[in-house]
Design goal:
Blueprint lengths: L8 E6 L5 H10 L4 E6 L11 H22 L5 E4 L2 H12 L6 E3 L4 H7 L4 E6 L1 H5 L1 H10 L4 E6 L2 H10 L6 H8 L1 H4 L8 E4 L8 H7 L5 E3 L2 H14 L13 E4 L4 H5 L1 H6 L4 E4 L3
Parallel strand pairs: 1-2, 1-3, 2-9, 3-4, 5-6, 5-7, 7-8, 9-10
The structure holds D-glutamic acid.
D-glutamic acid (DGL) binds next to helix 3.
């Protein structure tokens, strides 16, 4: 028998497992929601994709995911694009295509510039996010009085995926990636680094080991969770008649790596996996 329930259903989306760092913050704040976590592993990684290709891909995947979820579970109340690389490019486009509220993740430049004492801040992101006009505008608007040392790395994204598959992450690899933070002009004054890729908070401990002591690492997860809570208060979810409300992980391609992620997914309360091939 179907029961009426008002449990908000939230789709959290990324190219891979990085968005789990954002979903975790939302889960802490809003434990009563149903979470559908989607990884577009068929098109991973996003950080090396051409802009037009990425805009088309995100649109295509979100349509396929929503159709799958709506058929099997019911309506989705909110979409969180838990990927800086996608958000800094595709938000205006997807907001015009979907009726749900869409929350995106953008580099936490503003809080970093406010919190830094030395006004020398680091930006660690994918090469695409580092290069985006959106990111340059954020720096101009909120950190024009700061020196910003930018480092783009796709390898760090791969290392976060490896960690969640249970593989060892070699400290030398992390050290080599963050090396420019030691050599750039004014790097000795660096006191704050923005983790502007959702994969990177998954490697916070490893990054701390490779960086000078005392450097503050800032990401957007908590701010996103607050935004989701605020929007849900503004727009209470419609009553769902579907009683299937466990959390769920969705992937766009069945691979061996998906199986290897099962243990890590359980740590985020994602017990079940479904494939939405697209
Ligand atoms: N997690 C994504 C981000 O926040 C990027 C990963 C990728 O390159 O696919 O930017």
């Amino acid at each position: 028998m179907n029961a009426i329930q008002h449990k908000p259903r939230i789709l959290v989306f990324d190219s891979g497992v990085g968005g789990l760092s954002v979903m975790h913050e939302i889960q802490q704040r809003l434990p009563h929601c149903q979470y559908l976590y989607a990884s577009d592993n068929a098109a991973f990684p996003y950080g090396t994709k051409a802009e037009s290709e990425l805009i088309a891909r995100v649109d295509q995947v979100l349509h396929a995911l929503l159709q799958h979820i709506e058929q099997g579970y019911g309506p989705v109340d909110m979409i969180v694009v838990a990927c800086n690389t996608a958000s800094t490019l595709t938000l205006p486009h997807i907001r015009s295509h979907f009726s749900q509220p869409i929350v995106g993740v953008v580099p936490a430049i503003k809080p970093a510039a406010l919190q830094s004492r030395s006004k020398v801040i680091g930006l660690l992101a994918t090469p695409a996010t580092v290069a985006r006009p959106y990111t340059h505008d954020l720096i101009k608007e909120h950190a024009a009085h700061c020196t910003v040392i930018s480092v783009g790395s796709s390898e760090l994204v791969q290392l976060a995926e490896q960690k969640l598959r249970g593989e060892i992450v070699a400290p030398e690899k992390i050290a080599a990636i963050v090396a420019p933070f030691y050599t750039a002009p004014r790097s000795t004054e660096l006191d704050t680094i923005v983790l502007a890729c959702t994969h990177f908070p998954l490697l916070k401990d490893e990054l701390r080991h490779s960086l000078p002591e005392g450097i503050q690492l800032i990401d957007s997860g908590e701010a996103i969770a607050r935004r989701v809570e605020f929007l849900l208060q503004q727009q209470p979810p419609v009553a769902h008649t579907d009683v299937r409300h466990g959390h769920l992980a969705l992937f766009t391609k069945a691979t061996r790596d998906v199986e290897l992620l099962r243990t890590a997914l359980r740590d985020f309360a994602l017990e079940n996996i479904e494939i939405v091939a697209c």
